[in-house]
Amino acid sequence: MFDIHENKSKKCILEDLPNELLIFIFGYLSAFDLYESLFHLNYRFNQICFQQKLHLDLSLRQCLTDYYCLNQHLFQLNTFSIELNRSVSTIHFDCFVNLRRLIVKDGSLRDFNENVFISLNKLEHLSYLKTYCVLIEHGDDVLPILKLKSLKSLTFHSFEPIPFANRIENEKLLPQLEYLCVDGCYVDDFFRMLEHFDSSSSLKRINVFLIYEQKYGELSSSSLFHFYFDSVVNIEFTFNYLSFDNFQSILRCFPNLKYLKFSNLTNQFDYLSSQKWNSLICSNLLQLIQLKFYIRIENEVERPTIDFLRSFYELNQQWLNGLIVMDFHSKIKPKSIEFYTSSQHLTDGKSSTEFYGKQRFIIGDSTKKDFQFNKTIKHLNLTLTDDFNFNDQYEIYPKIESIHIHSQFTNSQYSNSK
Questions:
Q1: Distance CA 162, CA 145 (A)
Q2: Where are the beta strands (DSSP E) in 15-100?
Q3: Which of 40-49, 120-129, 135-144, 338-347 has maximum average pLDDT?
Q4: How far apart are CA 352 and CA 333, in angstroms?
Q5: Which candidate, 382, 282, 374, 370, places its Cα nearest to that of 323?
Q6: Rounded distance between C-alpha atoms, residue 248 and residue 246, angstroms
Q7: Nearest-CA neighbor of 376 among 304, 316, 334, 322?
Q8: So what's the pLDDT on residue 163?
């Protein structure tokens, strides 16, 4: 006869769980905890340990790094991801035959080249590589990475503008690369590097912060922008003070572009010309589906008219997703205009707003209640004056992280509840 009380008192031990649950639970353990606690416990647990896709974090305590170095033979086959923040000469990276993902942060790229990147060519499955806050001193330091044939996603992030070698021997770079992100690079260096990509490359998406120095004048489009990337369909640009003519020359290199997003600080009004944008898209970007932008013009500008905004929207609305917003700041010196699509993401775009002297104009399809521009704001600036009214400025900013308040001499009183 079945005894309910006896069944309740029975305890479940780890070995009683099915393999599926054990694999799920072990997935939350680090390689160190997994092997120190469970390896060699029994045959079944050994088999489950070797089924885990391990992530080795070599940026943690030195004792853990030493442990991985001494026991790397245990992790070679089932290590799929490695993260490190210093060059580790005692680890043979070419032994991790199933490595898919490598993150390198801090330090100098030249040091990593000597002990890490020089052996990565032997890894046929490495598809993701990211360098974060790594000092890149010379263009030649980047070459070992650019020659990796298996990479599909590559991200460069450095404290200084990332240099690329002026001359690379006749060799096509990164033949399988699909995504390229470069956070900080001079325009001419970036496009000289792109010249070495095969015209039939797999590159589909580019995200780059382009650095342009005004003192060098206009870029020579004939020398830099004479090739085409038919495979690229998605681009995100961030840049400052690049002329609209040069920007047009850059975009012409990507005739099959479908998604364009950019953020720009400038003093040129050409970026606000509906006719120029319409002409550029209709002549050179025939495949374009979506356009997103954030443009800030800092100049002694005059108050814009709503007709100007309406003209831009009506002429280019087929590529715009949502509303067009324009904020005119009349009391801040110098006067400025912020011109952006409401669907523009926060990244490198509009992240703060100032209430003082701001006039907002909104144009778009009234059926699309897309007011995402408030939902991305993280920093709020308030300047209190006699003519400032909280009731007029009532809006919802759900992601606010900081508020900066500047109070001028005023006769008005505001309660803390406001």
A1: 13
A2: 54-57, 79-84
A3: 120-129
A4: 17
A5: 370
A6: 5
A7: 322
A8: 81
> What pLDDT, on a 0 to 100 scale, did the predictor assign at position 379?
76
Partner residues linked to 412 by β-bridges: none
Which one-letter amino acid corresponds to residue 56?
A: L
CB atoms near residue 254 (< 10 Å): 22
* Confidence (pTM): 0.77
Residue with tokens 């709020």: 380
pLDDT of residue 188: 81
Identify which of 29, 36, 19, 23 has the alpha carbon closest to the alpha carbon of residue 57: 29
Tokens, residue 76: 């070679």
Query: Which string of DSSP letters, residue by residue, matches 241-256?
Result: S--HHHHHHHHTT-TT
Name the β-bridge partners of 153: 128, 179
Only one residue has tokens 């040091």, namely: 111
Q: What is the CA radius of gyration of the chain?
A: 28
Residue type, 240: N
SS3 state of residue 378: coil
Tell me the pLDDT tens digit for each residue of 63-103: 666 666 667 677 777 788 888 876 665 677 777 888 899 88
3-class SS of residue 94: helix
Percent of the chain past pLDDT 70, that is, above it, reads: 72
**Token pair for 390:** 């909280």
Which SS3 state, helix, strand or coil, does residue 144 take?
helix
Identify the residue whose tokens are 């942060």.
105
